[in-house]
Amino acid sequence: MAQDYYKTLNVSRDASAEEIQKAYRQLARKYHPDMNPDDQESAKKKFQEVQTAYETLKDPEKRKKYDQFGENYERFTGAGGFNGAGFEWSNVGGGAGGFNINDLFGAFMQGGSHGGSRGGGFGSFGDFRSAPRASRGADLTADVQIDFNVSILGGVVPVRHTDRQSGQSKTIDVKIPAGVEDGRKMRLRGMGEPGAGGGSAGDLILTIHINQHKYFERDGRNLRLRLPISLSEAAFGCKIDVPTPYGSVKLKIPSGTNSGSKLRVKGYGVRDPKQGNGDLYVVCELHAPEKWRSEDLEALKKMELKDETLRADVTF
């Protein structure tokens, strides 16, 4: 039974291009083999029917011919087909300068008996079929989650991909460039939907999403590190090892450092050979001990700290 492409996509015959595309996307997700692990064979068949219908109806020229000739429109259009090209329909029926229409159809049915052999006459109906027009396959999209350190240094992450020809899933390794930003798109050539009529396959477009880091944040090409320090380190100052994407560096914490103070480590941000390297900003965060020793509390009392002076200018 001939396939009704409009019914396949659940749209009306006067549906707009936007309506057809929306219906295709919904049905492609619904019948994708990965979404139907318990019935992949049936889903794959339905998925292919949806793809075939969309490939025809999304193209205005193909859709026009389909509306006129039906599912086998490619057989009756194009060079040598029944669209009127190459035939002079005047004087049909014989006579001077004309020809007999029965002779024409006789040539079709008898393999060219009125016009010579198959090599020199009209031949059979099969000789009048135009080759299917090659069309590129549709692009596919997918989201990929990567760790923060991979976004800064680059790396290889596994991505699950389903081959559209066989319906089988496989894992491919995707190289992530150093310094990639959240929301960046990557295009993998030829990994999308297969083409029709010998056309090239579409592409797989990946959208990168970066997982948050517990201590590091990104601001353009600069990095920000929230570094916990103790009260004694802030009071007396010290030198500590600070982690960076490129190894640890020694950083001097000045005496009297307050919470929120920023210290810059030049050139240790996101590195870009074209635009230059960003910097690393270390933001000090003072952390009081969870449990105070009695002698520490006594020492604080002797310091006679007047905490109310810290809030003297805090107003609404």
Q: How many runs of DSSP E, i.e. beta strands?
A: 11
Helix content: 25-40%
Q: Record the strand order, biggest sheet.
A: 6-7-11-10
Order of helices and strands: HHHHHEHEEEEEEHEEEEH
Inertia-based shape: elongated
- Please summarize the sheet with the most strands: 4 strands, mixed
Low-confidence stretches: 79-129
Radius of gyration: 36 Å
Gap between N and C termini, in Å? 78 Å
Structural class: alpha+beta
Q: State which percent range the strand residues make up.
A: 15-25%
Q: Mean of residue pLDDT? A: 78
**Number of H- or I-type helical stretches:** 8
Defining key terms:
316 residues, alpha+beta, 4-stranded mixed β-sheet, 3-stranded mixed β-sheet, 8 helices, elongated
Can you describe what's shown?
With 316 residues, this protein is α+β, with helices and mostly antiparallel strands. The protein has eight helices and eleven strands. The strands form four sheets. A four-stranded mixed β-sheet has the order 6-7-11-10. A three-stranded mixed β-sheet has the order 1-5-4. The chain has a two-stranded antiparallel sheet with strand order 2-3. Helix 2 packs antiparallel against helix 3. The termini are far apart.
